[in-house]
Every structure is written in C-alpha cells, then in structure tokens.
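About this split. The held-out portion is used to measure sequence recovery: a designer receives only the structure tokens and must propose an amino acid at every position. Recovery is the fraction of positions where the proposal matches the reference. Here is one held-out target exactly as it appears in the evaluation file.
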C-alpha cells in the first residue's frame, strides 16, 4: 500500500516563498555586442580586455548589477541583425545615424574620440603632395586614389557624407570580414589601396603590434577638424520596450561616471602623449557639455 503524506500548509508556504524569492533573483540578460577591432575591444593576446571599450563596458557592468551581462563578438552586420530582431542587445559606442535610429535607441554620448585620419604608407606620401592635411572630397573627386573602407562602418556623419557623396566604385574599396582594420592595413602595405580612414588610436595600436610603426603615417582630414561633436558615440540598444528602459538606466550611469578620471583614461591610454591635450579639451568642452535627452528618455518621461 502506498501512503501519501499530505504537505503541511506551513511547509507548502515555505516552499512557495523560496520559489518566489528565487524567481525574483533571476536577472534579465544583456548582450554586449563587441566588434573584433582592437583597440576598441581586444579579445586575445597579452592586452586582452584592455581595449578602451573593454574597460568602459566593464565599468558600466559594475554599475548595472540587475542585468546578467553576456558578451557576443559581432561585426556591424550582426549588430544590425540583433537589433532588427529585437534582441536584448546593446553596443557601447555607436555613431547615431538616421538609418540606425530606425531600429535602435541611443543613450547620451558614451565616448568621444579624436577625429578619423587618413592612414597611408610613408612610401606613398609623395602621391599626396607631402601634405600633412588633406581635403577628402578633393582626393575622391580627383579619382587618383583608391581608399579602403569597412562596409557598414560609420566614420562619423561628416566623413560618411563625403565618402557616400563623392566616392564611387573607382575610388572606394569596401571590405567586410573579420579583423577589418587589420586586413585593410595589410592591403595598404601591399599597395592594393592608397589610404584608409581610421581613428588615431587604431593606427597606433596596429602599427605597434605589427612592428610597422616606422612605415605608416597619418594625414589630418580638414573636414573633420571643425566639428568635434561629429566624434560623439552612444550606447545603442534594440528599439524595443526593453531597450528603451535599458537606455534610461544607462543614461543615469553615464551621467555619474563620465566626469571621472577612470572613465576618461580608458581612451587616453591609447593615444600618443602629444594628442592628449587636444583630447582633454574635447572631453571637457564637448563630451561633458550637458546633452539633450535622447528619444528613449523623452518617451519614458511622457509615459
């Protein structure tokens, strides 16, 4: 004979209370989309985890304990896919463009970088008339140069507009694949392209790790120097109710952390010392300038 012992109400209540408490501890996942593009993120080697976006993501994670943080290496096309599918996914530093605003919410500025430069081989400097700065639209209109660019990567609104308006298949080589900047660097050194746009810290990191620092140089782009606000990037999350709420929380953290030395130094560590005074000027006068509330935050205020 099987004897079934009834569960006493007090024991049942305790079990239900424990289950409820456990459920309450469950954290919502937040996938951080990370491009394989040092020194933004460094996923391997002696400097693993020391990219400036690695350091800033780690700082945000410390301040966002209510999420289960997960990391997902992803190229830009994968970023777009995750957001369009409405996944619980964010990226630390994205340029805000009209196209991206169709499927992502954006925070207040999360990172400011120095403007992109044109990276060339020193052996090819004469082709650029030995100039230290260039007008990008003039280079493209001359049709004398082939410039490599990463497909779907934004270089800031100013440069994007010039590349899209004045570039053509004869002057722009678009590349998509792993380790975008590294492979474009190799094409540059092989003479397959004449130049590539990139951030100063990218040039420094790759030239150093490839042992070619004495073989490359950078040219300032005149159109970039007059608008440092074009170099502001933002945390971007899927354009869903979850993304809207997450951006609002992230904005609070950013307002607290951006003025700290730890936050500022995450990027500074990858700059040439001569570039730091200009960067600090931009940081104080542009980056920390009180921004307008973003679309997600405004929407929450009216709910």
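Reference sequence for scoring:
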């Amino acid at each position: 004979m099987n004897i079934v012992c009834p569960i006493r109400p007090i024991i049942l209540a305790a079990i239900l209370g424990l289950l409820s408490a456990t459920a309450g501890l469950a954290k919502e996942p937040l996938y951080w989309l990370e491009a394989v593009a040092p020194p933004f993120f460094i996923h391997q080697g002696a400097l693993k985890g020391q990219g400036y976006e690695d350091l800033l993501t780690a700082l945000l994670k410390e301040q966002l304990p209510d999420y289960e943080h997960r990391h997902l290496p992803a190229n830009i096309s994968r970023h777009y896919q995750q957001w369009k599918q409405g996944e619980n996914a964010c990226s630390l530093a994205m340029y805000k463009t009209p196209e991206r605003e169709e499927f992502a919410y954006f925070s207040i500025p999360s990172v400011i970088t120095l403007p992109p430069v044109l990276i060339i081989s020193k052996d090819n400097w004469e082709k650029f008339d030995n100039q230290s700065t260039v007008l990008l639209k003039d280079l493209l209109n001359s049709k004398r140069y082939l410039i490599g660019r990463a497909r779907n990567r934004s270089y800031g609104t100013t440069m994007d507009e010039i590349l899209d308006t004045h570039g053509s298949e004869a002057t722009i080589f678009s590349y998509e694949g792993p380790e975008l900047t590294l492979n474009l660097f190799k094409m540059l050194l092989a003479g397959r392209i004449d130049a590539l746009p990139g951030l100063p810290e990218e040039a420094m990191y790759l030239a150093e790790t490839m042992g070619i620092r004495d073989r490359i140089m950078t040219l300032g782009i005149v159109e970039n120097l007059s608008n440092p606000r074009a170099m502001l990037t933002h945390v971007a999350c899927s354009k869903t109710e979850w993304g809207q709420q997450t951006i609002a929380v992230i904005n609070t953290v950013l307002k607290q952390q951006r003025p700290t030395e730890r936050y500022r130094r995450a990027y500074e560590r990858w700059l040439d010392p001569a570039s730091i005074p200009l960067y600090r000027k931009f940081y104080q006068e542009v980056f920390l300038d009180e921004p307008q509330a973003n679309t997600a935050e405004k929407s929450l205020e009216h709910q």
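Annotator remark: The longest strand covers residues 104-112.
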